[in-house]
Amino acid sequence: MPSPFLTPAQVRATRFPRRRGKGYDPAQVDAFALRIADALAGRVELHPDRVRAVAFTEIAGGYDQRAVDDFLAACEHQLRTGHVPPTTLRTGEALLAVKLPRSTDGYDRGEVDAFLGRAAAALDDRGRMTSGEVRHTRFTTTSGLRRGYQVRAVDALLDELEQELRFRGR
């Protein structure tokens, strides 16, 4: 049975159906969902009561209110309980098996590969790494002939790695 708890990546990827009539302003909902994802990742503080009390402007063609409200209720519950679900990155091998797409404007592959090597060792208890270290990691970007790893894909992988380390109490 899948976990009823959402990962930060799942929150970021959530899309809501639109209504023909009035619905919640998509820009406001999407911005708040990103804040929830950052809170679940441990990057920002967001009190569950704030999730319960949030109000969005209604506009024509906006998001279906019931779908958004159900999503917010689940997020509020998760923030209130402080639950951090495990990820698919249970081993260093699983981390290194992730294929990152390349991009002309991406993160430096050498830096990312070195960091992921250290992270894989930490997942296998052959080194130390904390969720805070993952959160504060920055990579040089490439351009032109040197192709790097796609920024969005690396950031999503770092979110998952950070979550796995938080799940493990690091």
Largest sheet composition: 2 strands, antiparallel
Rg: 18 Å
Q: How much of the polypeptide forms β-strand, as a percent range? A: 5-15%
- The pLDDT mean sits at 87
Shape: globular
**What are the segments in which pLDDT stays under 50 over at least 5 consecutive residues?**
none
Helices and strands, with pairings:
Blueprint: H1 8-13, E1 22-24, H2 26-40, H3 48-53, E2 58-60, H4 65-81, H5 92-96, E3 102-103, H6 109-123, H7 131-135, E4 148-149, H8 151-167
Antiparallel strand pairs: 1-2, 3-4
Keywords:
170 residues, mainly alpha, two-stranded antiparallel sheet, 8 helices
Description:
The mean pLDDT is 87. Helix 2 runs parallel beside helix 4 (65-81). The strands form two sheets. A two-stranded antiparallel sheet has the order 1-2. A two-stranded antiparallel sheet has the order 3-4. The protein contains eight helices and four strands. With 170 residues, the protein is mainly alpha-helical. Helices cover 51% and strands 6% of the residues.
Short description:
The chain has 170 residues and is mainly α.
